[in-house]
Amino acid sequence: MSTWRNKAVVAALVAAAVAGPGVAQAAPAASAAAQKQVSAATITWTLERASNPTQDQQTAYNLITAAMNAAVARYNNLSDLGKYITVRYDPGVPTADGNINGTIRFGNRAYMTERTALHEIAHTIGVGTSSGWNSLSSGGGWRGAQATALVKQYDGSGATLSTGGGHFWPYGLNYDNEFSNTAADRHVRIVAAMVRDGL
What we know:
Blueprint: H1 3-19, H2 32-37, E1 43-47, H3 55-78, E2 83-89, E3 96-98, E4 103-106, H4 114-125, H5 131-136, H6 145-155, E5 162-164, E6 167-169, H7 181-197
Parallel strand pairs: 1-2, 2-4
Antiparallel strand pairs: 3-4, 5-6
Helix pairs in contact: 1-3, 3-4, 4-7, 6-7
């Protein structure tokens, strides 16, 4: 990863942390050249909060905010995808879920992570939830040219992008053991390529 991109990602994470709960901000570009290379921040989100939160709710809000700020910063630095997302803490949700209507619900504390937030943002964009997904992912594999070419670039000419149950792999970030900075970056780029394919 180039030095300017490292600085942009670090700046995005710092800006997101300073901005406070429910506000994600993209990194400011360091130069005119960087502005041409870094995508505009187009994913935004808000967290629905109780007016007088309990300690349980406040702890959840803090974890969700950190996870969403990191995930949105990564999406905004590596893609030009757009979505307005409403996030809720719902203790009745066993893990977390995302919907094409732009909502994400987090329940279990173990899933209030950047990995889960990236995965659920993909669902709000259409992974497993859109008509484009249904037409391009039948038969257990992705049939779109751009995302398929990208996974081959990452993993070799024999690589395939598998689909099933509303998810994809590799780089779907379906489980915690799939997460790394490289995998997270590739996840965002593959989701963006799926959108270009017609997701």
